[in-house]
Write a structure and sequence with these properties.
The protein is mostly helical. It has helices spanning about 5-35, 40-60, 60-70, 75-95, 100-105, 115-140, 140-165, 170-190, 205-215, 220-230, 230-240, 245-250, 255-275, 285-315, 330-350, 355-380, 380-400, 415-435, 435-455, 455-465. The protein starts with a helix and ends in an 11-residue tail after the last helix.
């Protein structure tokens, strides 16, 4: 299959799955914010984020190794999945030793340690789902992977409606809905992909386990560093200005997920193509074209979101959360650069250079911590948003320079700088003017400018990708 057509096909398949789950996340916001007060919503989110940062530590990020090694045609798939499953179960047994110190965690007015049993269940079930998901994707079962996303959407919706509605379970209901949905996904993937056939109790070649752990272990600090950049600010906002303010900041962080939706749909498909085409002679040309289309799409979506962020906030959250829109424009810029950083990660993945992924992420994490400590006391939650933007820019620049050792493709720096300036002007206009006809005229004009700036990559998208699905004209 043509490489562009394959990329487009996989992107569409993943889009069906990702779009449904992301739309659900936004549609649930009015319901969740109506059922949970700001402080409770903050606590529920902190439980989820705490579990998410523990998962790669407990399981040594073995799910990423399951994906990467399942992509290699010469590997024995049964050995890959069995190593992943053993590391997951062994890691959880070790994790049980730390139950008591975790139960003592208390952040300002949020007694996180009281929810330790919930965190443990979340870690185990979600960790199992991630392992099954990534292995299935690496084996090429993209339709099954997409179907799992749709299933997760339906079950998350159902469990949230039940647990937060008739059962009125509050914080526990919000978190249990995620756990129950993940459990359904594990069962679905085991049955759909017949994963039990990839489980062996026999001795596995030591080089398979060694190579997988050699790849995955350096990713553990990398994930932690990403967590520091993406999520630690919520703990710092809670510590400096309280759980109620963090609840607003958390609600604001949901809207930039529209950019993540665009990015994730593509990146899931792109990782498969990046590995497949990495050894081809035309790889520089391929990466250049795809990156220009991808980056242009990211910035167009980001520009549109800033334009309508006040309207979206009004629609998606309860009235008491409306002021959270003030954090959205800056967070959208941060999210845009995180998407560009994720594209460059595909080069490290293809090269199996997970250590360099860790080193580049370290620069961003260090920047983020310092700026959070400086800016949050002065600017409040928006200080955390600004710190996140700068951190991702630092990582992008560092990673852009470093990856040229492995692959020299043209990232069109002039275009990137121009698009970033347009987003920055939109952000300033909205935060300074806040409302009114003048503000929307400026925002609209800047959005049109962003569209005009990306006419060429949009045309390339149509001719290189979508055109592949149209019947060819007969000579």
């Amino acid at each position: 299959m043509d490489k562009y057509k394959k990329l487009a096909t996989n992107t569409i398949i993943f889009a069906i799955s990702k779009f449904s789950s992301s739309v659900l996340s936004f549609l649930l916001m009015p319901y969740v914010t109506a059922k949970l007060v700001s402080a409770d919503y903050s606590t529920a989110d902190l439980i989820q984020q705490t579990a998410n940062v523990l998962i790669p530590i407990v399981f040594l990020q073995v799910n990423s190794a399951a994906l990467r090694f399942a992509l290699d045609k010469q590997t024995v798939k049964r050995d890959v999945f069995s190593v992943g499953l053993r590391v997951t179960l062994q890691g959880f047994l070790v994790f049980l030793i730390f139950y008591y110190p975790i139960s003592l965690i208390n952040i300002n007015d949020t007694p996180l340690g009281d929810y330790a049993p919930l965190i443990y269940i979340f870690v185990l079930v979600s960790g199992m789902r991630q392992l099954c998901q990534q292995f299935v994707r690496g084996c090429g079962h993209v339709k099954l992977y997409a179907a799992d996303g749709i299933l997760a959407t339906a079950t998350t919706l159902a469990f949230n409606l039940i647990f937060l509605g008739p059962l009125n379970m509050g914080i526990y209901g919000y978190v249990f809905a995620i756990i129950a949905s993940d459990a359904c996904s594990v069962l679905f993937l085991f049955v759909g992909a017949r994963l039990w056939k990839n489980v062996t109790f026999k001795k596995i070649p030591s080089d398979t386990r060694r190579d997988m752990l050699k790849y995955s272990i350096p990713m553990v600090p990398t994930i932690i560093l990403w967590w520091i950049i993406n999520v630690s600010d919520r703990y710092m906002v809670t510590g400096f200005v309280g759980g109620a303010e963090n609840g607003l900041y958390t609600a604001a962080s949901k809207i930039p997920n529209f950019v993540i939706l665009f990015s994730t749909v593509f990146i899931d498909a792109w990782q498969l193509s990046a590995v497949d085409e990495y050894d081809s002679e035309s790889r520089e040309h391929f990466f250049t074209k795809v990156f220009r289309v991808y980056s242009g799409g990211v910035f167009v979506v980001a520009s549109a979101l800033i334009l309508v962020c006040q309207i979206l906030t009004k629609i998606l959250v309860a009235d008491s959360y409306y002021t959270s829109w003030r954090y959205v424009p800056v967070l959208i810029i941060a999210t845009s650069f995180s998407c560009l950083v994720n594209f460059l990660a595909s080069i490290y993945m293809a090269e199996k250079k997970s250590f360099m992924g860790m080193v580049t992420a370290l620069s961003g994490a260090f920047t983020n911590i310092i700026l959070n400590l400086v800016l949050i006391p002065v600017m409040g939650a928006n200080g955390a948003a600004v710190a996140t933007v700068i951190s991702f820019i630092v990582v992008f620049v560092f990673r852009g320079q470093n990856t040229r050792k492995y692959l020299k493709f043209d990232m069109k720096p002039v275009a990137l700088i121009s698009e970033t300036l347009i987003l920055a002007l939109q952000c300033v206009a909205m935060l300074v003017l806040e409302k009114g006809v003048v503000m929307y005229c400026i925002e609209g004009a800047l959005f049109v400018l962003m569209l005009l700036f990306n006419i060429k990559p949009i045309k390339e998208l149509i001719t290189l990708v979508l055109g592949r699905f149209l019947p060819k004209k007969k000579a």
